[in-house]
TrEMBL record, chain A:
<protein>
    <submittedName>
        <fullName>Multiple sugar transport system permease protein</fullName>
    </submittedName>
</protein>
<feature type="domain" description="ABC transmembrane type-1">
    <location>
        <begin position="97"/>
        <end position="309"/>
    </location>
</feature>
<feature type="region of interest" description="Disordered">
    <location>
        <begin position="1"/>
        <end position="27"/>
    </location>
</feature>
<feature type="transmembrane region" description="Helical">
    <location>
        <begin position="101"/>
        <end position="122"/>
    </location>
</feature>
<keyword id="KW-1133">Transmembrane helix</keyword>
<feature type="transmembrane region" description="Helical">
    <location>
        <begin position="241"/>
        <end position="263"/>
    </location>
</feature>
<feature type="transmembrane region" description="Helical">
    <location>
        <begin position="293"/>
        <end position="312"/>
    </location>
</feature>
<dbReference type="InterPro" id="IPR035906">
    <property type="entry name" value="MetI-like_sf"/>
</dbReference>
<keyword id="KW-0762">Sugar transport</keyword>
From TrEMBL, chain B:
<keyword id="KW-0812">Transmembrane</keyword>
<feature type="transmembrane region" description="Helical">
    <location>
        <begin position="115"/>
        <end position="137"/>
    </location>
</feature>
<keyword id="KW-1133">Transmembrane helix</keyword>
<dbReference type="Pfam" id="PF00528">
    <property type="entry name" value="BPD_transp_1"/>
</dbReference>
<comment type="similarity">
    <text>Belongs to the binding-protein-dependent transport system permease family.</text>
</comment>
<feature type="domain" description="ABC transmembrane type-1">
    <location>
        <begin position="80"/>
        <end position="270"/>
    </location>
</feature>
<feature type="transmembrane region" description="Helical">
    <location>
        <begin position="191"/>
        <end position="213"/>
    </location>
</feature>
<feature type="transmembrane region" description="Helical">
    <location>
        <begin position="21"/>
        <end position="41"/>
    </location>
</feature>
<feature type="transmembrane region" description="Helical">
    <location>
        <begin position="250"/>
        <end position="270"/>
    </location>
</feature>
């Protein structure tokens, strides 16, 4: 055992050129470094091209466009900060931003809580887990367009079984997608139905990493199920909760497919989300400058929000080790 | 465990909670399935049954008329072929190029490696809405707008998550294996093809299914980049179908069923791998 570890450290040391070569031969080393650089660039070439042509370049271009007036065909003119002024003063964009925030505020906690509960129960169930997981996960592999079409049908007041069920107990259900008070709630229901499976799978992966010894130690100390869940499982799961809250918030801010399929290009004011606005402004009104300013603003908000969450994690996220 | 079996009262208590547990899970999971069942059965109902009150889940008179209408309206076969072309091309190109980049980041020392890798990771934060307008303009300039290439190239040639995931796995491969190959005279390319790629099989399969699913269900990029109905992928066709037949709910549900069922079948067969692939995406935060 001992000789083996020493062999491993020896081989590691020899792989590191700085520790082995006390008196390097400059020309040979430089040539070797250059050759390695060449190989690295060769292996990286396709993905590096993609990074520059399809991400970094377009990002810079989008940033530039946000200060211009352009419809994509006629000559481009500089707009200064006009597009940003439009983004922060337009009343419809303010309404769309509010819709997006409401959607996120309802959907993300809904997803996290229901995902955690289902994952916890699934973990306990042992048997039939894959059957349940199949049902929970199936909406996740269905395209958003199909999901939206199904719910368009289920929310239609004339044929909705939901409304029929409510009617049979004497409640007049609203026209879910047309009523400004219920449209966001309806989108949240669809979002949770579609996204729950992902949350469950990630939470189950997190739960499987909770050390059994800790839970057993808590049992011996006389902790009940609830105390074990609250005092052991939740802290051990906190990195998973952080990961899911960051990714879910980003996803909720970018909701588009469902809204677009349900309302096409003429969504009512109360149903519009920010990304829906970006697409409408860019590709219906051909106002690339304004749409770019809105996209840049969305990106910066997401960066700030994610940064805040990463800062706040020190207060509540627990890392083993 | 041996102590619980000797206490009969405690054992029945455990069995009772297990029963409750399964009852809760069964009810909630079946609730999850109801929208699908409603879609499936509505696609076999005549229109007057869809509008009937009170509603019933199962059709009284089964009909395939909705499917006839669906296939008469829209070229599902063509859309299916387009979806397969895009999803398969992106998956194959992306897996190969991501593995290459992952190998370079994990195994070759070069100036700027740290900065470049950080740049890759940072791009995971960029929302697609920020780059879609420039991409639309670029694709127009190079003449790829309204072709499947506009969907294949950006996704195939760039995937920061794939690079990151595979790099972790390459790092886990024992260095001794590659050193032995180097002593036998294998160069970088041979080492990559004969040693690294075969050892990456498991993460490649998981990532591949993940990529395929993502492309198959993608709506945003096809919606912006494609114009001709002959180039439409399945999600676009369903959307177009919805626009044409908003009042013919039976036909619409038939169209949605046609689009949804293949992926549900794939999921049924590859459930374990898909779940592994998804779980990978969360555990590496």
């Amino acid at each position: 055992m001992n000789s083996r570890t020493s062999m491993l450290t020896a081989s590691k040391a020899s792989a590191d050129p700085t520790t082995v070569q006390t008196s390097p031969k400059p020309a040979a080393v430089r040539r070797a470094r250059l050759r390695d650089f060449g190989w690295a660039m060769g292996f990286l070439a396709p993905q590096l091209t993609g990074l520059i042509v399809f991400v970094v370049g377009p990002m810079a271009f989008a940033f530039y466009l946000s200060f211009t007036n352009w419809d994509g065909f006629n000559t481009l003119s500089m707009a200064g900060l006009d597009n940003y002024r439009f983004v922060f003063t337009d009343p419809q964009l303010a309404a769309s931003a509010r819709n997006t925030l409401w959607l996120t505020a309802l959907q993300v906690p809904g997803l996290l809580v229901s995902g955690l509960i289902v994952a916890y129960f699934l973990q306990k169930a042992g048997r039939m887990t894959s059957f349940y997981r199949l049902l929970f996960f199936a909406p996740q592999v269905t395209s958003s367009v199909a999901v939206a079409a199904i719910w368009l049908y289920l929310f239609n007041p004339q044929i909705s079984p939901i409304n029929s069920a409510l009617r049979s107990v004497g409640i007049t259900a609203p026209d879910w997608l047309q009523n400004p008070h219920t449209v966001i709630l309806s989108l949240v229901v669809v979002g949770i139905w579609q996204g729950l499976g992902y949350q469950v799978v990630i939470f189950m992966a997190g739960l499987s990493n909770v050390p059994r010894t800790l839970l057993e130690a808590a049992s011996i100390d006389g902790a009940n199920e609830w105390q074990k869940f609250w005092r052991v499982t939740i802290p051990m799961l906190s990195p998973t909760i952080l990961f899911l809250s960051i990714t879910s918030i980003i996803a909720s801010f970018q909701v588009f497919d469902i809204v677009y399929v349900m309302f096409d290009t003429n969504a009512t004011s109360s149903a519009r989300t920010i990304v829906y606005e970006i697409v409408q402004i860019a590709f219906q009104q051909n106002s690339f400058g304004q749409a770019s300013a809105l996209a840049v603003s969305l990106f910066v908000s997401l960066l700030l929000l994610t940064g805040l969450q990463l800062l706040a994690q020190r207060r509540w996220v627990y890392y083993a080790e | 465990m041996s102590t619980t079996t000797s206490h009969p009262t405690r054992r029945t208590a455990i069995r009772w909670t297990q029963l409750q547990l399964h009852l809760i899970l069964l009810v909630t999971s079946v609730l999850m399935a109801i929208p699908f069942l409603w879609m499936l059965f509505a696609s076999f109902k005549p229109l007057d049954e869809i509008f009937r009150y009170p509603p019933s889940l199962l059709p009284e008179h089964w009909t395939t008329r909705n499917y006839d209408t669906g296939f008469a309206q829209v070229d599902f076969v063509r859309a299916f072929a387009n979806s397969v072309t895009v999803a398969l091309s992106v998956t194959v190109i992306s897996l190969l190029t991501c593995a290459m980049a992952a190998y370079a980041f994990a195994r070759i020392r070069f100036a700027g490696r740290g900065i470049l890798f950080t740049a890759f990771l940072c791009t995971m934060m960029v929302p697609p809405q920020l780059t879609i307008i420039p991409l639309y303009i670029i694709m127009g300039r190079i003449g790829l707008l309204d072709t499947l290439w506009a969907l294949i190239l950006p996704s195939g040639l760039f995937n920061a998550f794939g690079v990151f995931l595979l790099r972790q796995y390459v790092k886990g491969i024992p260095l001794e294996l590659e050193e032995a190959a180097a002593i036998d005279g294998a160069g970088r390319i041979r080492t990559f093809v004969t040693i690294v790629l075969p050892l990456l099989r498991t993460p490649l399969v998981a990532l591949g299914i993940f990529l395929f699913l993502g492309q198959w269900n993608s709506f945003f990029y096809p919606l912006i980049f494609l114009n001709s109905t002959s180039n439409f992928t399945l999600p676009l066709v369903v959307n177009q179908f919805k626009g044409a037949l908003t009042s013919d709910w039976g036909a619409l549900m038939a169209g949605v069923t046609i689009a949804a069922v293949p992926m549900l079948l794939v999921f049924l067969l590859a459930q374990r791998k898909i779940v592994e692939g998804i779980a990978l995406s969360g555990s590496k935060s």
